[in-house]
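#random but structural
TW: two for the price of one
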Amino acid sequence: MKPIRTILIANRSEIAIRVMRAAAEMNIRTVAIYAEEDKLALHRFKADEAYQVGAGQKPIAAYLDIDDIIRIAKEAGVDAIHPGYGFLSENPEFAEACAAAGIAFIGPQPEVMRQLGNKVSARELAEKAGVPVVPATGALPYTLAEAQRMAAAVGYPLMLKASWGGGGRGMRVVEHEDELAGAMEVARREAKAAFGNDEVYLEKLVRRAHHVEVQILGDTHGNLVHLFERDCSVQRRNQKVVERAPAPYLNESQRTALCEAALKLARAVGYTHAGTVEFLMDADTGAFYFIEVNPRIQVEHTVTEAITGVDIVKAQIRITEGAQIGEEDSFVPAQPDIRLLGHALQCRVTTEDPENNFTPDYGRLTAYRSAAGFGVRLDGGTAYTGAVITPYYDSLLVKVTAWGHTPTEANARMDRALREFRIRGVSSNLAFLENVIAHPLFTSGKCTTRFIDSTPELFQFTPRRDRATKLLEFLGDVTVNGNAEMKGRAAPSPMPGPARLPDCPLGEAPPPGSRDKLHELGAERFAQWMREQKQVLITDTTLRDAHQSLFATRMRTADMLAVAPHYARLASGLFSLECWGGATFDVSMRFLKEDPWQRLAELRAAIPNVLFQMLLRASNAVGYTNYPDNVVRHFIAQAAEGGIDLFRVFDSLNAVDNMRVAIDAVRDTGRLCEAAICYTGDIYDASRRYDLKYYVDMAKQLEQAGAHILAIKDMAGICTPRAVTALVKALKEGTGLPIHFHTHDTSGIAAASVLAAVEAGVDAVDAAMDAMSGLTSQPNLGSIVAALAGSERDPELDRSHLQQLSTYWEGVRQVYAPFEADLRAGTSAVYRHEMPGGQVTNLREQARSLGIEARWPEVAEAYAQVNLLFGDIVKVTPTSKVVGDMALFMVSNGLTPADVLDPAREIDFPESVVSLFKGELGTPAHGFPAELQRKVLKGQAPLAGRPGETMAPVDLAAEQAKVEQQTGR
């Protein structure tokens, strides 16, 4: 053998790199060529040497410049040239030029290439060798009339093909005679550009056909073998997209006949090196027909290598050196020793946009991550983060080959590999490929060449989330510009260290808690137990209302999860943990960029023993508008499944009818329904509309509606000790429900109201851990426990454990200091403006964003005035937000109540005010002063009753699909 020491690869990108890798393993030096447009291509830098070719020529023409390639080969002192596929790989003149220069051409002899590379002469050889062929014409003349005569002799429909090339270039379907002239013109132009020869011919079109090809190898000593077949039926525009081996639809006798036909043809011409004999197989009859020979290596050769273990590129090189097939150093076993070893398929990942008719895309790869792992092979070109994809060449980025013991395993491995890819910056066909290999017709192995064209569902894609890019952009933005949420806020200085977690062993399972009791008793008996037992039950609001009221709901899930397992062990005696609903849902998504459902799931996993409580805005769910009934029901069902045990349901105007859908939905889940009375005004103030009878009547309606528990929701913290004593006693006498008292410490004396409620017989109260209590939050949990210690109603919570939890929250709270309102003490002004505790911090934040924070006393007073303007309404989300919007509007625009009521003054009211008066928030349009209602609505009639009753149900499945499409969940 004459050893090859240096090889020039007369090609680019993926196939050039493939040859270089084989050469490197054989200790052969490599030389690359590159066009000007490819000067940054990876193959240039992969080779030992690289030279520019075809200077001044167009991008493709540069790689077709035979004279310049030979010049470079001589100057570089190469022994052989490998042509790859495409470009000059099937050009006999190039092979002859190599021979004339004394350089070995790694491929068949020029005369063999002429015989087989020309598809017309190849057909004639096949017929002589006894290989079945599809009816076809010879080379078409330039005279249209003669070409039409030849076409008519074969019969339409026909396939127009280039005589000197493949890869789909120059191929056109011709259905009728009047299409022939235009198709010939385009096909000749494409063939000339791609192969340097515009000869074309016509072939009978088999409609339902499999495209199957046989890989052959021949040495220079007359030995020929086949490496079995590949199925290439999955094509688009005659360009192969997915290839697999062996062909899934062949039985052994068909496989033997097909491979022997390929060898017959090869023997007839004394074929050497690698080649592919291609056939069409009629899917209906099983008959196969020879169509062409590709006298070169194929793009899809990797699947054959995967199932035979034969390195075809190394074999080409060894054959050129003179090795004999069957000898160990040839890398090709004798035919009896070549066996099928499993199954493989190859996908061509391209920079094309399937949603835009596969238009090639180009630009910089901002991110590139490829697949890996057992049974996955990658053959890539210029594919790495930062690579520039140019518009000048084929759009192939990387070939992925997956191997498996069975077709199913190979398919699954390919699916996994495709999903591991991340390609950003340019479009890719990854999603399309995933659809192809997942399609039942593909997995069945019955695809024909019309598969892609006749399967529109392949083009239905789920958008990629591209989380990594979004995260990197966010981190970059925050690093450079700072977090937008911190704009105008001073960060803590020095920055607090990690909060101190309780000293608590977490290895043992947590003790039984209230949730275990609910599972034991069921909702009805659990409510009865609440009323009968003597201890006062305590809900900790730290995980929801406390931080919502103190620092605008900004607490992150991470800070909750860190202490969650400690809660399960140190505070298992709590009645419940209010940890979800209210504003947490909205803020999680809008500001914290977190998934509230994930928060619920993770907290539930960490605290399996204590009831989880959420705040539900009845027909508004956790939003600020009215939702159709089926949406509310579905939301509640999902929340219950996610881990919520107790639903505190309220309506923003205390409309019981608006709460019935939610109450029924909660009961259907088997969870606890705590219906809330929103407390506003003063039951002893005769000028107000909310007296004791009002609340007792409402409580009775809620009991009849099916509530398990009754809540007094004192959202502003204005229920005085005297008032709550009377209210609790009246509700106890008027209903058979346990009572749960919720208040805020905005006034500074809310603990007195809590203790008064306990004395009056309330069954459960809300409080916040010491470090998260007071001001607009709930009263101090630890202090309430201490005050009740030793009494008949002692909650019997371990105060040392509570203190450890409070110490943790003290550290956490320091981190969120920039989001706290500038409140130093409780204020009796709350009895005037009646602003909910959670709204105080949020409204102050809105005032700050409008530049009127210094005018806060005016905003608070305007809030009180707006309440009276609106008819003394219940103020809780979403109505409280509307009152707040109107108050800010009045202060910002210098308006007084008289200005608002002035019929001569034109006012464009805030959109939320209009929505409230129209009843679009899910509340009846009642109780508003008529003159103001007319002015706000400007002649529009308000909606009567609950709009949800007339709203069309939402298609939940369609909405869920949209969410999954947008989020990938």
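TW: number two ↓
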Amino acid sequence: MELMSFQKLFQMTKVINSQFELSEILQVFVDAIAGEITQADLVGFFLKQPDGTFKGYKGNKLPVDITELLIDPKEDEFVRDILRNQSSDYISDTSVDLRLDQSKRQLLKIKSILGIPVIVDNEVFGLVFVHDFGKPMNITPEQMEVTEAFVNMASVAIRNIRMFEQRQLLMEKQQLLLDATKALSESLSVKDVLNTFFHYMRKASGSKDIGIHLYNEKEHTIEPYQLSSENVTMDEWKVKHREVKLTIENDRLLYEVITEKKSAAIEDVYADPRPNHKAFVSFDIKSIMVFPLVAKGSVYGVVAIPSIGKQRKYEASLLEFCQSISDATATALSNAQHTETLDHSVHERSIELQQANFKLEGLVRELEHLNELKSDFIATLSHELRTPITAVKGSVDILGKGILGDLNDSQKDLLDIAAKSIDRLLDQVNELLDFAKMENGKFELMYTEADFNEIVKESVHIVQSLINKKKLVLVVETEVDKDTVVRVDKQRILQILLNLLSNAIKFTPPLGVITIRTKFEDSLLTVEVHDNGIGIPFEKQKNIFTKFYQANNQINGTGLGLAISKQLIELHGGRIWFESSEGQGSVFKFTLPTGKE
């Protein structure tokens, strides 16, 4: 009998250890005790509840539904003894030993009963009761010993399955956290971040009521931001918040979460003095978890996960898990909010710039129209001026030559002054005409082949009288041992040289030196006009080639000479620049393609 019992014990232990569901293990467990070990009528397993009571979970074949039975140790001395001693106990006659709850004794017609605790990790996991129905149970010490051994074997199996379930749960949590982190990192908009957060936080917390609140650091207020709930609408949520107006001054719980940057969980909010009870009554909150949203070292909001209408117990692992998802969300949400704020600012700025561009385009069109009117006016005026000026010049020339009679010395001097003034006025009118043609795009160069040294000689001859009058020294350094023929608009190049020489003469004091230097390199001609005059002030140098600009307002002129010279050189495919130091003179340089391969 003893050998047979241990063989059956071994076989049933193998069966139990082959199961992976707690429900299946316990069903095999009670059936084995009833049918193979004790041959008892009734075997029931009662699972310990969070409140310390024991609820019926599995039985072999009871006349009542075991899941409807509840054992309260406060009302059952027999159970209290088992729990206190954490060991088996046996009542051979319930009419003599009255420790058993009498309501249960009468309901199940218990005459004798064996109670065994199921110990898992040094704690009572559940209770096993073995008894017959309506008759004393003839159980032997050997059967009691085998039953206890079997319970111990079952305890190990239960412990293993719990460890397996815990590992599975941990792996599921880790995977959920990885999925949440990845999804949040890929969420670029605030809307996407919030949807992702609510999806994963509902899974992590097991709650359908989750609210995000923003913290106004300046006002110390907690403002409702976004909600995911089946118990209250967003509008109702915000209205109730406005009525309560939470601050860190009137809610100590929020104060601690925000200032200490740590999560908190309260199972009974009304037994804790920290929360704002008025707010919790308004929302019918019984328990709550609160997590800070921390980004860049600062708390900018909190996540609240309440339990509505009933209390809830919180494990430390749950709090830690939900905090991990809140941490990942805080960074993603902060970045998305910052990006959308920048996008909004950029969009507004773009609209402003677009409107400014529209105005600018209108102004540009208006300026272009005014510029055309100006150019047309200058061209028309110049044409109108050239005719009478030419007529006056012809009359002065005739008088000066004495064709109409001899002139005295005073008259000749006056006519000489008039002739020079007319020439200067005609030069200015011609500059205005050139300017108008260039502005209207009607200016054309007349290319011919010419010896550049001859052009230089001609320009020197024209200004020689001015050179002599100011007692200046003009030095010409031209290359005579090279082919100096160029293909240019001779008259325009002469105009450029005269312009540069005239400026050098104007700004060089008496007895000064002006040098013209030319250099031919391959297909490029370089010309330099040096003077040791007054130089150009640094602050005025940037405007030298600007139309109508004059570095020295005391010198007569249109302010177009250098601007026109620059355009003429560029039309030839060359460029012009200068170097100048105030009080030390200037050098103007320009290059021209020779027009030869």
